[in-house]
């Protein structure tokens, strides 16, 4: 039996609590007004006339948007943390690497970067694909916990 979708109010509140949905800034509202006249409230679905208001006349919610940058920020933090570990390990072995020529050290540099990129590719894609969903929040929480990203 397929799982029932989350009630819309609960999902909206959940995403808002996790900073995936955030209120629009005055500059973003002004930009939106240049291209649209009416939008639907992300909380209750009621129409909002942008020429007259920047919040919902039905439920009072401010204009808000899904922040897809949340996943991008986490992916960048993950890549930075792993790159720092890679650099630390290369530094730890620097005495041994000093015996190698420039070409051999460059090969090691290339190999270790390639390994890091390949290992981070699938988690990065999955985080981006699931952004703004309950699954995305679970994946994000797991990555933050496993890699101590806070």
Structural notes for this entry:
It is a single chain. The protein has 150 residues and is mostly helical. It is 59% helix and 8% strand. It folds into 2 domains: 17-66, no CATH class; 69-146, no CATH class. The chain has helices at 8-17, 26-35, 69-92, 94-97, 102-129, 134-146; strands spanning 21-23, 38-40, 47-49, 64-66. The protein has a two-stranded antiparallel ribbon. A two-stranded antiparallel sheet has the order 2-3. The mean pLDDT is 83.
Task: Summarize this structure briefly.
This protein is mainly alpha-helical and 150 residues long.
Describe how the helices and strands are arranged.
Elements: H1 8-17, E1 21-23, H2 26-35, E2 38-40, E3 47-49, E4 64-66, H3 69-92, H4 94-97, H5 102-129, H6 134-146
Antiparallel strand pairs: 1-4, 2-3
Helix pairs in contact: 3-5
* Helix-strand string: HEHEEEHHHH
The quaternary structure here is single chain
Counted beta strands: 4
Please state the CA-atom Rg, rounded to the nearest Å. 22 Å
Sheet with most strands: strand arrangement: 1-4
> Mean pLDDT across all residues, rounded?
83
N-C termini distance: 37 Å
Main sheet summary: 2 strands, antiparallel
Q: Helicity level, as a percent range?
A: 55-70%
Q: Give the structural class.
A: mainly alpha
The number of helices is 6
- The proportion of residues in beta strands is 5-15%
């Amino acid at each position: 039996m397929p799982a029932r979708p989350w009630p819309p109010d609960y999902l909206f509140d959940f995403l808002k609590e996790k900073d995936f949905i955030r209120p629009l800034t005055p500059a973003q509202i002004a930009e939106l007004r240049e291209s649209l006249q009416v939008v639907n409230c992300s909380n209750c679905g009621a129409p909002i006339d942008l020429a007259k208001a920047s919040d919902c006349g039905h439920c009072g919610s401010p204009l808000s948007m899904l922040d897809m940058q949340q996943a991008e920020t986490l992916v960048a933090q993950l890549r930075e943390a792993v790159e720092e570990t890679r650099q630390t390990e290369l530094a730890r072995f620097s005495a041994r690497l000093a015996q190698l020529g420039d070409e051999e050290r460059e090969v090691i540099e290339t190999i270790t970067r390639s390994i890091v990129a390949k290992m981070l590719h699938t988690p990065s894609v999955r985080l981006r694909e699931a952004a703004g969903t309950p699954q995305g929040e679970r994946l994000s929480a797991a990555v933050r916990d496993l890699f101590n990203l806070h």
